[in-house]
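Table S5 (text form). Sequence records supplied for joint modeling of the two-component complex.
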Amino acid sequence: MKIFLSVLLLSIFLFSSTSFTQIGVKVNGLPPFEATEYVRPLSTWFGTYFNSGTYYDASVPEFFGFKFNIVGMWTIIPDDQKTYKPNPQLAGVGDVDPTATVFGNRASYYLGSNGFYTYPSGLSLNAVPFGIYQFAGSFYNTELLLRFFPKVKFGDAKVGLFGFGIKHEISSHIPLLPVDIAVQFLYNNFNFEYVGDDPVNYTKIKSNNFAFNVHASKTFAGIFIAYSGLQYESSSTDFSYFFEDENNYYPTLGRKKHDLSLDGDNSFRFTLGAAIKLGFFVVNADVNLTKFTTFTTGLSFDF
Amino acid sequence: MKNLNKLFFISILIVTSLALNGCDPFDELYLTLAMETEFITTAPLSNVFLTSSICLSEFDDYNDNSDKLKEIRYISAAYFTLSSSNGLQGDLRLKLYQGSTNTLLFDFTDSNFNADLYLTQPMKINLSQQEINNINSYLTNPQVDKCFRAELEVLNANDNDGAPFQLNGKVEFLTELHIEP
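The corresponding structure-token record, covering 484 residues in total, follows.
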């Protein structure tokens, strides 16, 4: 049986469970020590995705402000995140060719005592397109940003999201500074759980993501905004699944639920972008140089 | 100004939509498909000669993706003994044919076959490059189902108890399916 991580990803994008025809991901065929490497790039992607698109202007209204943003992202998956070197830890099985991670497209195999074992392929993605919406309100040069989607059941899955950010314009305390400067802290939590009847399909994902950034911006003619920032970010994912062990190679591990804890390869990112402000509407685009290079574009209602 | 804003945002939506639709994030996919066929004796044999047939359409991964298949290629094969008469030995011969025809794809022999040895470990079936090319040539046009006929024979058979002999075995064929995004 398969767990459909592609369903998971697209359910975030649209917050609906409309039809998905991508090929499923069979992580429940992997022992825990192999599943960790298979899923790790997903943890990194969570950290990249949830810590993106949170600013386009370091200036925060002195008294009151409100924003609603829709942010689209295009995250490039580097080649070194599409494969990993398997180590089945079985007597008589030698060197195994690199095989696909959750984002990869080509799986490897080995010949064991009970037959050929074929590793699962991945989602076959060169890039991940995604989106998110967020609200923000500000008082006295301090902004609170919120992302929220209540835990709702879609078919056999429950999905929920909660995130917040706190930002303060420190340049408001430094008169005559030629640019606006702000600091921002972000936290995002994502939950996915399979709640269907088939225990083989059991999957639970809990992703926690943190970030802290300093960013600066300059507005030209009241319309054009150039902005840039430096951010430190981290992600950790708790991943639980049912290991089927169809070939019966791991009798002490098979037919059981396993809990994995993964840290993503997130650390620092540099952002460079521009925005156009027309009345209450803002359109922005930026590039984020981090483990997974990400391009974002946003449409905002901002007053 | 109002009309200009409206035109501006419609343009942004159109451009974004076109850009996203023109950028396909999906790469081509390669699935490994293990196809297994069993050779079952239904009665004790004086000479061990077994046949089996197998078609691509018997497997879900092929059926689910056949309309998007670009290529199927052979990777490897292995033989396993499931059960046999006591100490069965001889010269193993495994042949694979195209469907129900007499077009031979490969002819594999092992002169020191001991059935018991392959109860707990596989016998890897090593083919020549020409034999691999024969199989891959047959697998061209992968969207059309392909069938194979396999013959398993143990020549000069002997065991610890004397004839009749019995052998149940299986052969696994490993292939790679190349699927368009």
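Note: The first strand of chain A starts at residue 64 and ends at 76.
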